[in-house]
Write a structure and sequence with these properties.
Strands 10-9-8-11-13-12 form a 6-stranded mixed sheet, sandwiched between helices. A 5-stranded mixed barrel has the order 1-2-3-5-4. With 313 residues, the chain is α/β, with parallel strands linked by helices. It is built from 8 helices and 13 strands. It folds into 3 domains: 66 residues, Nucleic acid-binding proteins (OB fold (Dihydrolipoamide Acetyltransferase, E2P)), CATH 2.40.50.140; 151 residues, Rossmann fold, CATH 3.40.50.300; 65 residues, Ribonucleotide Reductase Protein R1, domain 1, CATH 1.10.40.50. The structure holds guanosine-5'-diphosphate (GDP), magnesium ion and zinc ion. Magnesium ion binds next to helix 4. Zinc ion binds next to helix 6.
C-alpha cells in the first residue's frame, strides 16, 4: 500500500478533482466509491479549498479522507431540494471589489454580500477600485462608507489597478490567506489580481469561455495559488455568494452594529421595524445608526428570497 499524501483541492468539476500537493504540484484525483461528509447533505463530496488525503494508484490520485472544514459556503442544489452544493471550504476572508465610479456598486449589494459573509462566519473586506476616475463627490462618499464599514468591522481600501494605487495594501491582504474574491463584472477584479500576480487569469465574468454554456457551469469555483503565498478563490458568478442559508429572523444579527444594540431592545424578538422600545430605531432617530445600512436591512428583511426558502425548507 502506498503512502497517503496531503493536498488542497484546487478545482473540482465532477469526476476529476485537481489537488495541489505540498510541493505545489497538481495531482488529478478521483474519489472512490461512496463518500459521505457527515455535516452536510451535499451533491458534491469535495469542494475547492478542502484539505484532503490521497493515495497514488496507477498514476492517479485516489482521495481517501477529507479534513474537517473550518467553514464552507453552499447553495441549494435546486430550490426544491434539501441537498446543498458546497462552493468552497476553508475560506479565511471574503473580499468584495466594488466601484463608486463605473459600474457603480450599490450599498444594497455590498450589504447583502456582508450579511452573507457574516452568516458563514467569514471575515469580509472591501476594495473600492477605480480611484483614478472618481469625482470629488465619489471620494467623499468613499470616506463616509469607509467610516461606516470600518466601524462595523470591515476594512476598506481605496485602489486603482490602473495607476497601481493601493495595490501593495491589497497584496498584503491576500498574503498567506485563502481569499474569496467577488464583485460585479467590470469593477476590475482581473485588473487588481493581475497587478498582484501578473498573468493570473480569473474566470470570473468569463464563465462561458471555460465551460460549456449552461446552468451548471456556474457551480464551479476555482482556487489559484499566489506566488507570495496564499490562494484566491474565484467564484464564477456573484450569485454563488449571494444566496444565503439562514432564516429571516437572523438578519439583524448579521449587521454587527445592530447586533451590538439589540440586547437593549425592549422585546427579545424585536425585528427593529415597528416595535416600541427598539434600541436600533432609537439610535437611528438620534443619528447614531447609519441610515443606509438600516434601509438595506429592511430591504433584505423583506426580500422574497425568505418566502421561497422558508416555504420549501
Ligand atoms: N479607470 C480605471 N479602469 C479600470 C481599473 N481597473 C480596471 N479597469 C477597467 O475596467 C474594465 C473591467 O476590468 P476587469 O479587470 O476586466 O474587471 P472584472 O470584470 O471585474 O474582472 C477594464 O476595461 C479595465 O481596464 C481602474 O483602477 N481604473
Ligand atoms: Mg475579470
Ligand atoms: Zn429592536
Amino acid at each position: 500500500m502506498e503512502d497517503e499524501r496531503q493536498g488542497v483541492v484546487m478545482r473540482s468539476t465532477g469526476s476529476w478533482i485537481s489537488v495541489m500537493d505540498p510541493e505545489g504540484e497538481a495531482v488529478e484525483c478521483r474519489i472512490k466509491g461512496k463518500f459521505r461528509i457527515m455535516d452536510v447533505r451535499s451533491t458534491n463530496p469535495v469542494a475547492v479549498g478542502d484539505r484532503v488525503y490521497f493515495r497514488m494508484v496507477d498514476h492517479t490520485g485516489v482521495i481517501t479522507r477529507i479534513s474537517d472544514r473550518h467553514n464552507y459556503i453552499v447553495r441549494k442544489a435546486t430550490r426544491l431540494s434539501s441537498r446543498s452544493h458546497i462552493i468552497a471550504a476553508n475560506i479565511d476572508q471574503a473580499i468584495l471589489i466594488v466601484t463608486l465610479a463605473s459600474p457603480r456598486t450599490s450599498t444594497g449589494f455590498i450589504d447583502r454580500f456582508l450579511v452573507t459573509a457574516e452568516a458563514y462566519h467569514i471575515p469580509a473586506r472591501l476594495v473600492f477600485n477605480k480611484a483614478d476616475i472618481m469625482t470629488e463627490e465619489q471620494v467623499g462618499m468613499f470616506l463616509y462608507l469607509k467610516s461606516v464599514y470600518e466601524a462595523a468591522g470591515y476594512p476598506c481600501l481605496l485602489a486603482s489597478a490602473l495607476e497601481m494605487q493601493g495595490v501593495d495594501a491589497f497584496s498584503a491582504w491576500l498574503q498567506n490567506k485563502v481569499s474569496l474574491l467577488s464583485g460585479h463584472s467590470g469593477v476590475g477584479k482581473s485588473a487588481l489580481v493581475n497587478a498582484v500576480e501578473p498573468g493570473l487569469d480569473l474566470r470570473t465574468g468569463a464563465i462561458s469561455d471555460y465551460h460549456d454554456k449552461g446552468k451548471h457551469t456556474t457551480t464551479y469555483a476555482e482556487m489559484h495559488p499566489l506566488s507570495q503565498g496564499g490562494f484566491i478563490i474565484d467564484t464564477p458568478g456573484i450569485k454563488e455568494f449571494g444566496l444565503i442559508d439562514f432564516g429571516r429572523t437572523e438578519v439583524g444579527e448579521r449587521f454587527p452594529e445592530m447586533r451590538a444594540l439589540m440586547s437593549h431592545c425592549r422585546f427579545t424578538n424585536c425585528t427593529h421595524v415597528h416595535e416600541p422600545g427598539c434600541a436600533v430605531r432609537r439610535a437611528l432617530d438620534e443619528g447614531h445608526f447609519p441610515e443606509f445600512r438600516y434601509y438595506n436591512y429592511l430591504s433584505i428583511l423583506h426580500d422574497d428570497y425568505w418566502e421561497e426558502t422558508e416555504s420549501y425548507d
